[in-house]
């Protein structure tokens, strides 16, 4: 009985929740002079975040993902959508600590500071058998916790 009531309560809340989720962020805050780093910026939420933040005129946006071709394609697409943006891509595999260190080192070599860091990339829920990374950690722990 209590389960049924809880379910009914959830269902009655649903339309309002959907309306709330559809609300757009309309703040006008700019990012002039700032450096933004987005992990997993070559696709999905990370790529759209890169585009949306580029509209706020940061000095530079750096996206990091594993696949170099996808990285380059994403940069081309983002620059096509916003030609005034300054977006670059670096290779990053969050499940390899060496890759994470190299990514951080490359950024430290060109940027005096990182103002916005979006730890977006991650391994979603794992259903198959555990996968071990090059460093000997379980893949999800390595990418979502240690790598980030
Ligand atoms: N979409 C959803 O409904 C949803 C819901 C809950 C949570 N999330 C989380 O939100 C984040 C983004 O989701 P999404 O839907 O935008 O994912 P997506 O479209 O699959 O994009 C994932 C991005 O992360 C990169 N990536 C994946 N593994 C990586 C790794 N080990 N190291 C570095 N980059 C990596 C991918 O590029 P490469 O493959 O080239 O590396 C890609 O750029 C993920 O962490 C996901 O688990 C998403």
Short description:
By secondary structure, the chain is an alpha/beta fold.
Please outline the helices and strands:
Layout: H1 2-21, E1 35-39, H2 44-54, E2 60-65, H3 68-81, E3 87-91, H4 97-110, E4 116-118, H5 139-147
Parallel strand pairs: 1-2, 1-4, 2-3
What is the rounded Rg? Answer: 19 Å
* Cα end-to-end separation: 43 Å
Fourth-tier CATH superfamily name of the domain at 29-121: NAD(P)-binding Rossmann-like Domain
Give me the secondary-structure category: alpha/beta
Architecture of the domain at 29-121 in CATH? 3-Layer(aba) Sandwich
Main β-sheet description? 4 strands, parallel
Task: Give the count of helical stretches.
Answer: 5
Please name the CATH topology of the domain at 29-121: Rossmann fold
- The portion of residues assigned to helices is 40-55%
Shape: flat
- Widest β-sheet, arrangement of strands: 3-2-1-4
Low-pLDDT residue spans: none
Mean pLDDT: 91
GO molecular function, one term: oxidoreductase activity
InterPro entries: NAD(P)-bd_dom_sf, SDR_fam
Keywords: Oxidoreductase
